[in-house]
DNA sequence: GGCGGGCATGCTATCGTTAACATGCCGTAT
DNA sequence: ATACGGCATGTTAACGATAGCATGCCCGCC
């Protein structure tokens, strides 16, 4: 009793395999009666359509490769979720890979995923190895870089300026009257988006003639609550008179906040804290955390939209060169109780 | 300039396609010199191995289908991550699907994913539609149900007793001297694991002769911080003299905690709070949250282990019936500051 | 009545790789 | 010198679906 294939179903239904094939396609032209009969017989026989064969013959896989730094982060998870929501109607399946914030690993992943012949690929960030760039350019499929606006995009891009996000928080601090200001983040260049936020923040500090040295770096990403707490400790030791600090993400900001609470330091009375990412926790913690909303879900939605448009354009009788799309989103400041 | 295939590479390297194929297989028998030459030529030509053809011919896809309720939850994300870590060495690619806590959607996903011919499939929970069960039983691949110990497993299982987890927290409450005790969770049967925890909790309440009516149900899953806060409000209104409450997860527990903080209610002085899941936030919040560690990552690791063992067993010359594995993990109570 | 068009269905070749079997060559044991 | 084993490589025929084209039939229009 081997697993039945289309030929077996065709025989049982007394039609050609081609008709069975058509019965399984949404769009194909089969009479309703025939389709129903075939589907019923197929279900009874326990037939399960074999995508692998279909993929090979039709040269379409229905895969979208999606590469993120990690799935254990609500921001990226939100983006992936929104993207897959946007693609679900089209029977597209996401092939997920994560890099752990390492562009070497990203290269490895890209190579591996391209072998699966995805119909498009989305990346997080705009920094890649030269070989990764080459592979992507030669792949002949739509490429979308997200969460960033690379100076030299490979294909499409859906993102925002992380530097502007950093600047946004600094301006908020200044407007609130804070002058001795620090930044807590990672220490390597692995998280280039976090680094960009720091650069933007520091540049704005300098423009205001403020001290730009109060920086705490707490190791390689991910920078989470624990690192935030540790960094706050370090900051308070080195520069006890600091009035405000931005953290690279809400998670580290929350860690920093808890450290203050444990030490009986009033937030924002003695020190103000700003985060990034508009995580759930920032909205709910007490005091609620001032943060920047980069609109993770919107990045996913827009990415899905670009991909569907590209796909639609290519499906035309005369596929034309689909123009590059650069979708620039604007991060929003959410002022709350910690500043 | 179409994309080159194996034949093109073979021609350029002056060997047969078969030799190129072997050069790309880790295990195959090709002389080092030939392999190196082929790989170099392939890279120069921009050849990218086509898995879709390989999958069809070899009847092996290297896919593992993984179905979770949602990826926007640190617990499930941890499990998936640990699992993919365990499988990475074998060049296995995870095909991720999420159900939004809906077994109809799960059935749809199972059908869709099986068409991709995964070599194994893992599910979250043990409750499925009849058709889903049938599809899984007929699929002829290893099936692992996780995060639960189903009474009648389809194949393997890696999980723990959610009822025991609920009981564990109740016993802790009682040992601490609390008597008027409530439970905050979802209201539907969609999250069967959360429901099991509640049942276990209530049964234990009853055994101690305590009031079992202080239950707040806050809508369909996911139950997160917002729902936790709302539910705490409801609990305090209906039963203001409640001494302790367990929440279905740390996220809702944190929400409940923040509601108390906003109202100036001392935790645990006036009310104790217990969570579930050992999320990061439970460890870091102030006061730190008493919780139960279900060991999400270990579930992933054990699942990967079972799959690899099964796979290994089937690869033998004489594949035998691989015995069913039921891996029972034990949730641990982490007593902290909220109780 | 003849003819054109649209719809349902069938036939054949093919997608790119690899399982299975075949071949040839070299070294070593007898 | 002969035989045999082992390794590197080649040949052929699939894997299971479907693109592209062909066919037959029914219907309506002039």
Structural notes for this entry:
The structure is a homodimer of 339-residue chains. Chain A is α/β, with parallel strands linked by helices and 339 residues long. Chain A folds into three domains: 6-49, Orthogonal Bundle (434 Repressor (Amino-terminal Domain)), CATH 1.10.260; 62-160 and 297-329, Rossmann fold (3-Layer(aba) Sandwich), CATH 3.40.50; 162-293, Response regulator (Rossmann fold), CATH 3.40.50.2300. Helices cover 46% and strands 14% of the residues of chain A. In chain A, helix 7 links the parallel strand 3 and strand 4 (143-146). In chain A, helix 1 packs across helix 3. Chain A starts with 5 loop residues before the first helix and ends in a 5-residue tail after the last strand. Chains A and B meet through helix 4, helix 5, strand 2, helix 6 and helix 10 of A and helix 4, helix 5, strand 2, helix 6 and helix 10 of B. The structure holds a DNA duplex (30 and 30 nucleotides).
Strand content of chain A: 5-15%
CATH superfamily of the largest domain in chain A: Response regulator
Low-confidence stretches of chain A: none
Q: What radius of gyration of chain A results from the CA coordinates? A: 25 Å
Q: How do the SSEs of chain A run, as a string of H and E?
A: HHHHEHEHEHEEHEHEHEHEHEHEE
Indicate the overall shape of chain A.
elongated
Major β-sheet annotation of chain A: 6 strands, parallel
Classified by CATH, the class of the largest domain in chain A is: Alpha Beta
Largest interface, by Cβ-Cβ below 8 angstroms: which chains and how many residues each? A-B, 51 and 52 residues
Number of beta strands of chain A = 12
Broad structural category of chain A:
alpha/beta
What oligomerization state is this entry in? homodimer
Quickly give the CATH architecture of the largest domain in chain A.
3-Layer(aba) Sandwich
Work out the count of structural domains of chain A: 3
Give me the number of helical elements of chain A: 13
Mean pLDDT of chain A: 94
Distance N to C terminus of chain A? 69 Å
Annotated CATH topology of the largest domain in chain A: Rossmann fold
